[in-house]
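Review form for a predicted model. The reviewer records the input and the model, then writes brief findings.
Reviewer: anonymous (R2)
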Amino acid sequence: MKTVNKVALLAMLSSLVSQPVWADEAAMQSLKGKLAQLTSFQGQFEQVVHDQEGNELQTGSGSITLAQPLKIRWQQEMPDDTLFVSSGETTYYYDTFAEQVTVLDTTKLIDTTPFVLLTTQESGQWSKYNVELDRHQYLITPKNKVDSQVEQLTLSFDANNEGLAKLTVNDISGQVSTFSFKQSKVNVPVKDSMFEFVIPEGVVVDDQRGSD
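Model under review:
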């Protein structure tokens, strides 16, 4: 009887230890499946930023357009006018107030922010992050070897159209930025010109594509 109880106990402990691993893998496949069906997404967003104590620091608004693979257009309109555009290979970040454009290699952005995961199914990039499913929210966290500016990305989907509903970013400074999406359109045709960017004349250009 004791032997049976011991076997049952070991089996239970084994399942408890192994369950998070399976849960992470299942959550990752579930999230990748949802994103694979999201060939494009457009919407407006409202942003709220809180500090570590929960105090509101800033609010903002803007628009977002996503398309597979690795195409992003993120226009921040308030409080500052900034534009983040990725054509798939090259990413541009334009700060109109500073009159500066930063040029980046899109694939390397995976190492600093999991946000780009929303537009790629590439297993090598996903392997750099852990994914958990907490009720209806996906929690994405970088693995130890990833030097990320983001500690956790929390993502939830709209139950009506399967588009993005809310995105929360916990960064390494302790600030929490929450983006709530509205007026969204899912899987509608998006012109490639939405993801093109021409560097304005007279701005400072910081080309980081050749740097590690």
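Findings: The longest helix spans residues 2-37.
Further findings: The helical segments are 2-37, 123-126.
Recommendation: see findings above.
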